[in-house]
Amino acid sequence: MKRIRLGIVGLGRAFSLMLPTFLADARVQLAAACDPRETARSQFEADFDAPAFHDVEALARRADIDAVYIASPHQFHAAHTRIAASHGKHVLVEKPMALSLAECDDMIAACREANVHLIVGHCHSFDTPYLRARELIASGAFGDVKMIQALNYTDYLYRPRRPEELKTEEGGGAVFSQAAHQVDIVRLLAGSRVTRVRAAVGNWDPARPTEGAYAATLWFENGAFATLAYNGYGHFDSDEWTGWIGEMGQTRSADEYGVARRKLAKVASREEEARLKAAGTYGGNAYTPAANVPDARRHQHFGPLIVSCERGDLRPMPDGVVVYGDERRERIELDAPKVPRAEVIDELMAAVHGDTAPLHDGVWARGTLEICLAMLRSSAEQRDVLIGGETSITKEC
C-alpha cells in the first residue's frame, strides 16, 4: 500500500483536530514536525518516534517527507508554503489559505514553479454529505440549483483564543475562520462562479473585538443564489437542528449549554486565555489524546443547509441526504465513516501518488478568500461587491 510521509508544521488546534484522521488512516505516516513549543515537540517525538524541529526550514529539507501539512497560524501560511515548495514538498495547508489575495498568488506561483500540488483543507466542503449532495445535483434528476440556505449557531467566539485571533487584521474573527467553510460548501453545490456579494457582520462584544457573526447573500453566474448566516456568540446552538450531532460527527448533549462562556468567565487576562488554549492542544497539560476521544459515528458537518433545485430540495445531514422531491420524501443513507476526514487524505493521495489535480487547490481556495474579503468590504461600505477572476467548478471529485 502506498503511503504519504507527512511533515507537520504547527502542532496546535488544527493539528489536534486532524490527528484522529492521521492515526486512523493507514496511508499516512507522520514523519516529522515543527512547533515553537518544546512541550509539543517532545510529545510528538515520544508519540511517533520521529524528529520535531523549531525551524520550518529544517523540516522541509528532509528527504524522507513527501508532503507538508501547514497548520500554523493564518499569518504564516504563505511563508511556510513557499518554504515547503522550495524543497519540492507537496503542500496541504489549513484554511483560510492566507490573509490576502497577493499571498494566495505567491503560494500558487511557488507550488507551480516547484511542480508540486497545493491543497487547502480541511474545510467542510470535503465532508461526504455535501459531496453526495453534489453527486445528486450532477445527476440532473432535480434540475438546476436555484437557492441554497446555510446557517450555523455556535460558541465559536468564546472558545480560548490567542490575542491575534481576536484581531480581524491578523486573520481573526468569524469571517476568516468560519465563513471559509460555508462559502466553500455553497460554491461546491452551486457549481458556478460567484459574481456578487452583499454582507453584514456582527461585532457585538467589546471584550472580543472581532466579528462573531455575519449574514451574506452570494449570487452565482448560473442564476442561483445562496444565503449564509453564522452566529458564534454562544447562545442558540444549531446542533439542536441536526439531532445533537456535533460538527465533528460526535453525539452531543443539550446539557452542554453555556460551557464555553462559563469557562472563559474564569479567565483573568488575555495571557491566561492564550495559556489555556495552549494547554488544551497537542502537548499541553490539559490535552485529551486522540486515542481517548469518543469515536464519531456520523459524518462531520457545518450546520443546517438546504439546496433548492427546480424539482426538489436536498438536505445534507450527518448520516445521509434527505431528498424532498415533487412526489415523495426519501432519505439516502450514508455509511458511517471509518476514518474521520478521510476525504482529505483521498484528495492528498490522488495528488501526491496519482498526480491528479485536486478539487480544493490553490486557485479554488483563492476564490473562497476573495469572497470572504468581499464580505468584510461589503459590510464596511454597506454595498454590493462584485467578484472577478474566480474560476468556476469544472473538476470532478
UniProtKB/TrEMBL annotation:
Residues 130-238 form the GFO/IDH/MocA-like oxidoreductase domain. The keyword Signal applies. Residues 4-122 form the Gfo/Idh/MocA-like oxidoreductase N-terminal domain. Keywords: Signal. Residues 1-26 form the signal peptide. Gene3D superfamilies: Dihydrodipicolinate Reductase, domain 2, NAD(P)-binding Rossmann-like Domain. GO terms for molecular function: nucleotide binding. Pfam families: GFO_IDH_MocA (PF01408), GFO_IDH_MocA_C3 (PF22725). InterPro entries: Gfo/Idh/MocA-like_OxRdtase_N, Gfo/Idh/MocA_Oxidoreductases, GFO_IDH_MocA-like_dom, NAD(P)-bd_dom_sf. This is Oxidoreductase domain-containing protein. It comes from Caballeronia temeraria.
